[in-house]
Structure formats: structure tokens, C-alpha cells
Specification:
This protein is an alpha+beta fold and about 400 residues long. The chain is built from 13 helices and twelve strands. The protein has helices at about 1-10, 15-25, 40-55, 65-75, 100-105, 110-115, 160-200, 200-215, 220-235, 245-265, 290-300, 335-340, 350-365; strands spanning about 80-85, 90-95, 120, 135-140, 145-155, 245, 270-275, 280-285, 305-315, 320-325, 370-375, 380-385.
């Protein structure tokens, strides 16, 4: 990651050269205010304009993102016209001379195939058209050409050729970040699918068996449990939303525990201590339920006596502190290390490693699970969830599918 950030900084630095060129053309000492010299003013304007263009480019190269960013990119280069293309068509044309679209696309075959920039004169029968020269700079991500940035000007300019190439490199970095964002989203979706697949068929079978046992003896209880089961499975298998609220996750946990208690009766007791102010906090979907399922598994399996699980959610300033603790059989710390490292297969606890990985991906490595355990000493799992993190928004709660 450090190397990547360093590369990103290197990619941004050449924009200063483009900014200097822009400043030489447009800066006026009498209008600088407190920004200092013309070069300092141009540098500020360049970085500010780049920052305005970046958000749309972070969504990838589409007609909409190209339209939103083209004006900013043309300002960076100070050209009469600029267009962005993909492999097949012009996505947007900003400025004069849009009748050159077809000619430019016809000349892009070589640059799009080789990934090398090119400059060439434009033929035009319109006498007053100011666009007479085009500079093509390919947009590449992972050595694959996705499209091109084309800057058009009245005449050939070596400075424009270099500036267009540097701006295209910067755009390529933004597109690479967009690709990383999509990869991260796909990874999270795959991990959620893994968690859904982990919902034990034995749990489903046992829950339905328990419900069936109450059908004759206590029909109302059977009806209540069936509704709990339906709501829990609907929440677990919902199709959209990478994040949920702590309130909805705890509601699903309560439904899960209702089905478990129906099976084990007095052998399982649960205490919840939840601070109301942390209920709206957004967190990764299916983030806490696997931890409670783990507590039930290690609390009841291998023990003949009762098990107690305590779930607390406290306000800790900028974070919500969630603790799930059981007094079950515990685990060998070395075995736990292997589980979190992914060196033990799904039967060894995919829930713990999955949740730990997702928390680290969303919030950073310092927000992984903190687990205290030993053989015969139960287990205590602590999760620290920031109350706010850019890009983390809970989906609306579903009432039907």
C-alpha cells in the first residue's frame, strides 16, 4: 500500500508542470490575492481543478463520468477542445469542433492497440474552425488500454503533448482506483455469500424440527417461531446492501437466539446490554451474527450444563464497542490463530475469519477482532466499529422480498 501511495504521489506531481504551463497562459498578478506568485497561483488552481475532476473518475470510465470530468480536464490543459473515448466511441466532447469526432475515432485504432500517444493534424473544411491539431494520450489500467484522452488545439505544441500525457496518466490512476474499488466490492459480496452459505443446514433443519414439535402441543408458539425463522432467513439472504445498522443486526440476532432457545430451553441464557445511542451505527452486513453463532456453538457443544452469553454494545466516543462473551469450552489460542489466518478450512470457523477480514478491509487493520480465549475459559470477542466512515452507509431495512 505504501508503494502504491508513493506511485500515486508521483502521478500527481507531473500535474504541477501542466499547472505551470496553464499559469503562464492565464495567471494575472493583480488578481492573485493571497496566493503569491503566478506559479503558486497556477499550482493551486491545477490541484483544485484536479480534485474536482477526481470523484467522477473514481466511478470508472462511462459516458456520465466522462461528461462530469471533461470540463475540468480541459481546464487543466487549457485547450480549445477535449474528448474522452472508450475503445469504441467518443464518450464526451467538450469545447469547439465536435464535428471532428468521426475523424478522431478513425485515427485512434493505432494508439488504442499499442497504448502509445500520438499527435496528428486534423483535416477540416470549416474555415473558422479553431481545431487543427489533435494529441491522443491512451488511458491504461493494469497495462490494458481502456480509452483515450484527446486534446485539440489550433496548432502543434510540444508542451501540449507532454501535458496531455501527464494528465492522461493521472486519469489512469483514478480509473485504477475505481477498478480497485470494484474489486473490493466484489470481494465483500463474495464473502457475504460465503457467510450465507455457512448458515448451517443443521441449524435450518433443527429449527424446522423444533417448530414442527410445537405444531400440535402449542400452535401459537409454533406460529411465533415460524415467523422468527422467516424473518431471520429473509434478513440473512437479502440481495442488496453491504452494510446494515447495529439495530437491524441485533434484531436478527434476537430472532436467531429465539430459535436456539426453543431447541435448548433452559440450557441457554442470554443477557443484552445495549446503549440506545449506538443503535443507528452502520456496520458490515452479517458482521455480528456469526460471532453469536460461534458463542452458541462453543458454549453449548461439549458442555452438559447451561451456557450464558452476554452481548453488550457501548458508546465509546467515536466508536461503538461491541462485546460478545460466552462461558463455554473456549479454544486453544494457537487453533484460533490458524482460523484467523485462514489456515483451517470452513469447518474450522469461517465465520470468525470472515468477519475479521471484512472489518479490517472496511475500517483498517486496527479494527480487527480482539479475541480472548483459552481451553475451558470461554471466549470474549470485541469489535470496535467507528460511528462514521466515508462510504459506509446502511441499506434501508427490507420488509418484504
Amino acid at each position: 500500500m505504501t508503494g502504491f501511495l508513493a506511485g500515486l504521489c508521483v502521478a500527481v506531481l507531473p500535474l504541477l508542470a501542466a499547472g505551470f504551463w496553464l499559469g503562464r497562459r492565464t495567471a494575472r498578478p493583480e488578481s492573485l490575492g493571497d496566493l503569491g506568485t503566478p506559479v503558486e497561483h497556477a499550482t493551486f488552481q491545477t490541484l483544485h481543478t484536479a480534485s474536482l475532476a477526481a470523484p467522477s473518475l473514481r466511478a470508472g470510465l462511462t459516458e456520465e463520468t466522462a461528461r462530469k470530468s471533461a470540463r475540468r480536464l480541459r481546464t487543466l490543459l487549457g485547450t480549445d477542445a477535449l474528448c474522452l473515448t472508450d475503445q469504441k466511441q467518443v464518450l464526451v466532447w467538450d469545447g469547439v469542433g465536435s464535428h471532428h469526432r468521426g475523424e478522431i475515432m478513425a485515427r485512434l485504432a493505432g494508439p488504442l492497440e499499442t497504448g502509445r500517444g500520438e499527435a496528428f493534424p486534423l483535416s477540416c473544411a470549416t474555415p473558422d474552425c479553431p481545431v487543427r491539431w489533435a494529441v491522443v494520450a491512451p488511458l491504461t489500467v493494469d497495462d490494458r488500454v481502456h480509452g483515450a484522452l484527446v486534446a485539440c488545439a489550433p496548432r502543434e505544441s510540444a508542451v501540449l503533448v507532454r501535458a496531455a500525457g501527464e494528465v492522461a496518466r493521472w486519469v489512469s490512476v483514478q480509473l485504477e482506483l475505481a477498478d480497485l474499488d470494484r474489486s473490493r466490492t466484489r470481494l465483500i459480496e463474495a464473502e457475504i455469500k460465503a457467510l450465507r452459505a455457512q448458515i448451517s443446514p443443521h441449524f435450518i433443519f433443527n429449527s424446522l424440527a423444533v417448530i414442527a414439535s410445537f405444531v400440535r402441543t402449542d400452535p401459537e408458539r409454533a406460529r411465533e417461531l415460524l415467523l422468527e425463522f422467516a424473518d431471520f432467513t429473509r434478513y440473512s439472504f437479502r440481495r442488496h446492501g453491504d452494510f446494515t445498522t447495529l439495530a437491524d443486526e441485533l434484531h436478527a440476532i434476537d430472532q436467531y437466539l429465539a430459535l436456539v432457545r426453543a431447541r435448548f430451553g433452559d440450557r441457554l441464557s442470554v443477557t443484552l446490554q445495549i446503549a440506545p445511542e449506538v443503535l443507528p451505527v452502520a456496520l458490515p452486513f452479517l458482521c455480528l451474527q456469526p460471532l453469536v453463532e460461534n458463542a452458541v456453538k462453543h458454549g453449548l457443544e461439549g458442555k452438559a450444563d447451561a451456557c450464558h452469553i452476554q452481548i453488550t454494545a457501548q458508546d465509546a466516543g467515536a466508536e461503538a464497542l461491541v462485546v460478545i462473551e460466552d462461558d463455554g469450552v473456549g479454544m486453544d489460542p494457537e487453533e484460533l490463530r490458524l482460523i484467523l489466518a485462514g489456515e483451517i478450512g470452513p469447518s474450522g470457523g469461517i465465520g470468525l475469519s470472515n468477519v475479521d477480514d471484512r472489518l479490517r478491509q472496511v475500517y483498517g487493520d486496527d479494527h480487527g477482532l480482539v479475541i480472548e480465549t483459552a481451553v475451558g475459559a470461554g471466549m470474549k470477542i470485541t469489535a470496535r466499529v467507528p460511528k462514521y466512515r466515508p462510504g459506509v452507509h446502511s441499506a434501508a431495512r427490507l420488509t418484504s422480498e
